[in-house]
Amino acid sequence: MKKLTNWLKGPTALAALAGVAAAAVVLSVAELIGAFFTARATPIIALGSTFIDFTPPWLKDFAIATFGTNDKAALFAGMGLTIFLLACVLGAVAYRKWALGVAGVLLMGAVIVASVVTRASVEPLDAIPSLIGTAAGLVVLRLLMTRLWRMRQWPGVAADVAAKGAERPATTRRAFFAATGITAAAAAIAATGGRLLSAARSNVAQARESLQLPSPAKAAPAIPAGVQSAAPGVTPWVTPNNEFYRIDTALSVPEINAQDWELRVHGLVEQEVTLTFQDLLDAELIESHVTLTCVSNPVGGNLAGNAKWLGFPLREVLKMARPTEGADMVLSTSEDGFSASTPLEVLQDDRDAMLAIGMNGEPLPLEHGYPVRMVVPGLYGFVSATKWVVDLEVTRFADSKAYWTDRGWSERGPIKTMARVEVPKSFAQVAAGKVAIGGTAWAQTRGITKVEVQIDNGPWTEAVLSTEASVVTWRQWSFEWDATPGPHYIKARATDGTGEVQTDKRADPVPDGASGWQSVMVTVQ
Ligand SMILES: Nc1nc2c(c(=O)[nH]1)N[C@H]1C(S)=C(S)[C@@H](COP(=O)(O)O)O[C@H]1N2
Ligand SMILES: [Mo]
């Protein structure tokens, strides 16, 4: 304990503190100057995105299983801690060997710049905020070190280190803390200023607010009565936009001006096509409810949502471009470099895959792909639902690989049949007697024709199905259970429109989606 207190009072701890202050300066100055560049070019966002790009499937799966849709916050926390520790080491090293400290800062700068310039839609000039930030950090580190060197009162500090400050008047611990405090305050102000400035400079959110969506040429069929499960507490049949799950690799949400948006359709086509946002507004739009599902959704998980989408059929886009013989895939790419491989025929058949511009009667929220995303019934999002989509390349599975395929996930992703038990919740305590069990099931494009419930090892009994709106939306169900005291297990399984019963074979999300029957343990009093 005494050792620790002595160490904390000693030069190494103070030097580590100086290192942290310098790192804060690098990041905050880059953030401030970055307000005039793309958000993707600031160090934290760029480093985090680079890290995500190197994420293997097991790690993505683990992050989502552990942190759910807070995976990004977890990433930032982990990165913050890593940077903090590295900065401590850097400061301690710089105190003893300044040249090594300089090398360390330059190395960090190089790593940051490398990760900035390799981002999609980033230009070399976007490295400027990081370069200036690194230079500022170096200056600050030098200033703080000079103050430390001039504090000569420590025994055991190498003579050459002590000598560095020798020709200048000695200084005090208080002066050092004052300098560090001012640095930290300046960094905080710069970071906050950068944040506010970027927010003020971005008018995409405002433009979205004032955008008037056209009415569809073909309106969505009215939602039939009785789609909602009879069991209280089951998810709303239409997922409100602010409750819709969000999964993507974008640490800073791309901000695309609708007026600047263009979609290029090229590759194995007879006619290259470029569409503008105005082209979409002027086109004959369709509207339909479609349930999206993430491949990373664990059995019983909530990475699925149902919304009313307004958009232009991709079938029509492909008709204009006329794919040539041999093409079997469309590689869609987003403005921030994500890509998905979708079978060509899926985009051409009558399931109404679309370029969506509206979600539940509003323009797409920024996080859900504003101004334009893909919505493809029946396929997991990672192979179909490209948000901020800007490029469609008609190609062949044999010739191109999509973002997650390169990282160990499947190249195709039809959605697996799944029944989810939502009430009662896992580990709930319920009173004996009539208990409402309920949930949601999905098998997009095949539809749900039956849901069965099993209590403990009893017989499989049919649940009451809510009304089916369409085969591309989820279907809810309920089941009245006469609960007897004691611990019980509730299982559910669905049958799809082809008559196939949901498999009980457990599979992890990697590589093409989880399977198995959900089992919910409840205690009846
Ligand atoms: N640009 C971009 N689009 C993307 C992704 C992404 O990482 N980047 N993730 C996909 C995945 S894995 C899913 S499940 C859906 C999720 O869409 P949502 O966030 O609107 O629910 O978006 C898809 N589209
Ligand atoms: Mo996903």
Give the uncertain stretches in residue-range form.
none
Strand coverage percent: 15-25%
Q: Into how many domains do the coordinates divide?
A: 3
Q: What ligands are attached or bound here?
A: the ligand Nc1nc2c(c(=O)[nH]1)N[C@H]1C(S)=C(S)[C@@H](COP(=O)(O)O)O[C@H]1N2, molybdenum atom
Number of strands: 19
* Biggest sheet architecture: 5 strands, mixed
Share in helix? 25-40%
How would you characterize the overall build of this protein?
With 525 residues, the chain is α+β, with helices and mostly antiparallel strands. It folds into three domains: 200 residues, no CATH class; 167 residues, Sulfite Oxidase, Chain A, domain 2, CATH 3.90.420; 107 residues, Immunoglobulin-like (Sandwich). The chain is 35% helix and 22% strand. The strands form four sheets. It has a five-stranded mixed sheet. Strands 3, 4, 7, 8 and 9 form a five-stranded antiparallel sheet that branches. Strand 7 and strand 8 form a beta hairpin. The longest helix has 29 residues. The protein is globular. The mean pLDDT is 95. The site of ligand MTE has 20 residues, from loops.
Concise summary:
By secondary structure, this protein is of the alpha+beta class.
Keywords:
19 strands; Sulfite Oxidase, Chain A, domain 2; alpha+beta; 5-stranded antiparallel β-sheet; 3 domains; Immunoglobulin-like; 5-stranded mixed β-sheet; 35% helix; 525 residues; binds molybdenum atom; globular
